[in-house]
């Protein structure tokens, strides 16, 4: 009886397996016949799915015999529902009809480069971002793009992070989100910690190196980053994206969308939380964010409301690591007070409209408002009462002039305005003309509070020891055009007029009264050409950018000695090409600066270091990047940049404490390297796909020596470093999932000890033999050794 029972079970199991069939098909555009890559194929009742490959082909296995209902969807096309009876012989052809919708691309296209634009750029797609996104900040996700060097204060890519492109820091890199300025109006910086997990809501990123095309907001003085947030999805969806990793790093993200409702409306939302202890001692991060968009999509008009917010608390690790601790105590943190934290929240509101007028015109209008507020808290040991505008405390016969204090330094600001553009494309397609601009206002309060004092005297909690306000208006208009003179040969012109009004008043954090007002008008022309033949495009351009000083340049200098604005003349020339499985880009650049602002060691009347103009400096280099697909299994990619970054002449000032009367001694330098500008930056990526759905990626990064100041002194520098990462990705479509992805990232697999960022200062003290001795103190931001991040993304 047992043998009969087992036999029957075995028999029916074989029948069951035998009855399971497979289905292969191809998805194409019904109008053009082109294959559609990435189309989603779903069995409605069975909960099985697939995605079309590079040939537009999908396959579904282990399907039962009988009738199967398929649903096929692809962005911009009408969904297709088809009933198939299995077994099915041959290959199923599914033709999809495109929807008549106005795309959202024009929201950002006015400030972006296209294939015929004669400038140097690189676009990163949503798929590429998703592969890298395991909770680290945006600069770390861009680490392997050309000429980029990234760094993290906490050492693990979460919290305060930054990047430099061609050696230029974030205060000189213009950043926009949907064409709306993101840079802080006063410092010109971008603080990515205020936008945790923003990459999860980004459709694509375009990086323009050099001056690039005219944009809104801060001057492009080395590069620009242009973000487009998530575009419409036609099908309803939900995603859970969770991960964990070294240093107790956790990421939890929930995304959902309605798909297209009533063929016109769509709502998308995201909620994220990221926490990490950090590599550096106590350098924790507690980050939260959300994103919501709601849109109306018509044949000729799109109206979209985009809102997103980020809230962060990070323990400070801004001090860095003294040089003597590099060998044995790399996680050391200067700060020990338990609430030495930075606390900030920033809310963004964007109302976006794009419309098509007739057959030749497209328009875009965006209203925006950003509200930011927060503080960082500090414990200050034995601070002078005088520094806070307080009188000494007299207790009995003792006069006390200093005490321990806990203070908070606040920012409370509003940023709002409008950006707009109109695009005309001639009927014959030869002329592409864009006219646009924007008007934005920043209103920011800066103030400091005393929240505790060991000896309080006449102070009250939250007494403000400084309080000042700044208002900045930034207006610009531009006109840009591309004209096809002959087949493949295009001329490009771009003219921008930018006006700035900046007013500030009140008491600064060093207790000085800072009242002043400055106005600037800048003219920024750009010209160039491109020539396209076959799969090659040659281009060359000349562009000018002007940049006003930052807030600290105004407040730290006497108002009668405000530094001059900076000017950049930029030449770009290059080739973009594709030949079979080989795609490559090569370009030369020359960036000539006039009156570039740098730290020289010069101090103001209260001992604070100020920046000064240097008459002439430049960056010149060659950038190469490309990818080669060896086979369906192997792909090689990489980039490398060789450059020279020089200041032709400047004067350094060093504090001298070797005599009774403090003074500064000056030293002249010629033809020295610009700080934080390595002569070589390169990366390489090797992708291996041993089986379907499994991808192994080896990622390498090399950064040459960087100098901490502008003296080209190796004793004040960061050593070159070479890091290697391993990324393992597996994607599948198991039952009842539209997608399941597992990503493992092992960073710094060979445990390289390296520091991509730091600072230095020097001074003279009394010496035994020579009468004085030069002391140089270097501080570094060490990055983590071998560490990992593991993520699981589930799509429904």
UniProtKB/TrEMBL annotation:
Ion transport: present as a keyword of the record?
yes
- Name the predominant localization: membrane
As for subcellular location, the record says: Cell outer membrane
Give membrane topology per the record: Multi-pass membrane protein
Could you state a single Gene Ontology molecular function term? siderophore uptake transmembrane transporter activity
Q: Which GO terms describe its cellular component?
A: cell outer membrane
* Gene3D superfamilies cross-referenced by the UniProt entry: Carboxypeptidase-like, regulatory domain, TonB-dependent receptor, beta-barrel domain, TonB-dependent receptor, plug domain
Alphabetical UniProt keywords: Cell outer membrane, Ion transport, Iron, Iron transport, Membrane, Receptor, Signal, TonB box, Transmembrane, Transmembrane beta strand, Transport
Q: Which residues form the TonB-dependent receptor-like beta-barrel domain?
A: 329-749
Endoplasmic reticulum: is it a keyword of this entry?
A: no
Q: Which domain of life is it from?
A: Bacteria
Q: One Pfam family this chain carries?
A: Plug
Q: Residues in domain TonB-dependent receptor plug? A: 116-222
Return the PROSITE patterns for the record. TONB_DEPENDENT_REC_3 (PS52016)
Q: Give the similarity note.
A: Belongs to the TonB-dependent receptor family.
PANTHER family associated with the record: FERRICHROME IRON RECEPTOR-RELATED, FERRICHROME OUTER MEMBRANE TRANSPORTER_PHAGE RECEPTOR
Name it.
Iron complex outermembrane receptor protein
- Species of provenance: Algoriphagus boseongensis
């Amino acid at each position: 009886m047992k043998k009969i029972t087992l036999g029957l079970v075995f028999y029916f199991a074989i029948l069951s397996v035998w009855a399971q069939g497979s289905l292969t098909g191809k998805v194409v555009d019904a109008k053009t016949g082109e294959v559609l890559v990435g189309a989603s194929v779903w069995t409605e009742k069975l909960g099985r799915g697939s995605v079309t490959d590079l040939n537009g082909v999908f396959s579904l296995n282990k399907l039962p015999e009988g009738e199967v209902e398929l649903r096929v969807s692809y962005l911009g096309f009408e969904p297709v529902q088809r009933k198939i009876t299995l077994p099915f012989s041959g290959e199923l052809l599914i033709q999809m009809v495109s929807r008549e919708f106005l795309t959202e691309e024009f929201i950002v296209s006015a400030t972006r480069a296209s294939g015929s634009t004669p400038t140097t750029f690189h676009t990163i797609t949503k798929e590429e971002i998703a592969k890298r996104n395991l909770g680290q900040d945006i600069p770390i996700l861009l680490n392997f793009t050309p000429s980029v060097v990234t760094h993290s204060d906490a050492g693990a890519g979460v919290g305060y992070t930054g990047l430099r492109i061609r050696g230029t820091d974030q205060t000189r890199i213009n950043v926009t989100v949907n064409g709306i300025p993101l840079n802080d109006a006063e410092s010109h910086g971008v603080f990515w910690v205020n936008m945790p997990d923003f990459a999860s809501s980004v459709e694509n990123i375009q990086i323009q190196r050099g001056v690039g095309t005219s944009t809104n907001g801060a001057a492009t003085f080395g590069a620009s980053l242009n973000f487009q947030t998530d575009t419409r999805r036609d099908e309803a969806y939900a995603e859970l994206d969770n991960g964990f990793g070294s240093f107790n790093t956790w990421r939890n993200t929930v995304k959902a969308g309605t798909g297209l409702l009533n063929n016109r409306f769509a709502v998308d939302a995201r909620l994220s939380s990221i926490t990490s202890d950090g590599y550096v001692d106590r350098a924790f991060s507690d980050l939260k964010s959300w994103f919501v968009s709601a849109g109306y999509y018509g044949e000729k008009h799109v109206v979209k409301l985009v809102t997103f917010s980020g809230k962060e608390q990070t323990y400070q690790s801004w001090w860095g690591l003294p040089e003597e601790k590099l060998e044995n105590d790399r996680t050391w943190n200067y700060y020990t007070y338990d609430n030495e934290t930075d606390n900030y929240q920033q809310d963004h509101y964007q109302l976006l409209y794009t419309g098509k007028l007739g057959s030749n015109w497209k328009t875009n209008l965006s209203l925006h408002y950003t509200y930011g507020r927060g503080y960082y808290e500090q414990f200050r040991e034995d601070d002078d009462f005088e520094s806070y505008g307080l009188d000494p405390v007299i207790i009995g016969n003792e006069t006390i002039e200093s005490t321990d204090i806990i203070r908070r330094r606040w920012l409370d600001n509003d940023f709002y305005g409008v950006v707009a553009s109109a695009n005309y494309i001639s009927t014959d397609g030869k002329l592409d003309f864009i006219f646009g601009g924007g008007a934005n206002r920043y209103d920011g309060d800066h103030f400091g509070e005393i929240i505790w004092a060991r000896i309080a005297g006449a102070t009250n909690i939250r007494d403000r020891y400084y309080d000042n306000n700044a208002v900045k208006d930034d207006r610009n208009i531009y006109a840009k055009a591309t004209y096809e003179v002959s087949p493949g040969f295009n001329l490009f012109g771009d003219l921008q007029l930018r006006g700035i009004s900046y007013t500030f008043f009140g008491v600064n954090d060093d207790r000085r009264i800072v009242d002043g007002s400055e106005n600037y008008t800048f003219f920024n022309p750009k010209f160039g050409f491109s020539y396209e033949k076959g799969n090659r495009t040659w281009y060359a351009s000349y562009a000018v950018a002007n940049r006003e000083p930052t807030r600290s340049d105004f407040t730290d200098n006497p108002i009668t000695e405000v530094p001059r604005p900076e000017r950049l003349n930029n030449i770009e020339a290059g080739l973009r090409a594709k030949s079979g499985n080989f795609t490559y880009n090569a370009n030369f650049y020359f960036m000539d600066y006039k009156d570039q602002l740098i730290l020289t060691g010069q101090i103001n009347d209260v001992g604070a270091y100020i920046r000064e103009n240097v008459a002439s400096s430049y960056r010149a280099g060659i950038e190469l990047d490309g990818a080669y697909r060896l086979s369906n299994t192997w792909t090689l990619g990489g980039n490398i940049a060789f450059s020279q970054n020089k200041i032709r002449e400047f004067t350094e000032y060093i504090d001298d404490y070797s005599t009774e009367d403090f003074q500064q001694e000056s030293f002249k330098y010629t033809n020295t390297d610009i700080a934080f500008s390595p002569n070589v930056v390169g990366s390489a990526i090797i992708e291996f796909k041993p089986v379907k759905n499994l991808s192994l990626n080896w990622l390498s990064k090399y950064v040459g020596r960087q100098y901490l100041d502008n003296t080209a002194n190796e004793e004040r520098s960061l050593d070159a470093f070479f890091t290697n990462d391993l990324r393992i990705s597996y994607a599948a479509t198991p039952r009842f999932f539209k997608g399941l992805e597992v990503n493992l990232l092992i960073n710094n697999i060979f445990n390289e000890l390296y520091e991509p960022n730091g600072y230095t200062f020097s001074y003279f003290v009394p010496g035994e033999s020579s009468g004085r001795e030069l002391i140089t103190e270097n501080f570094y931001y060490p990055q983590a050794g071998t560490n990992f991040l593991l993520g699981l993304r589930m799509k429904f």
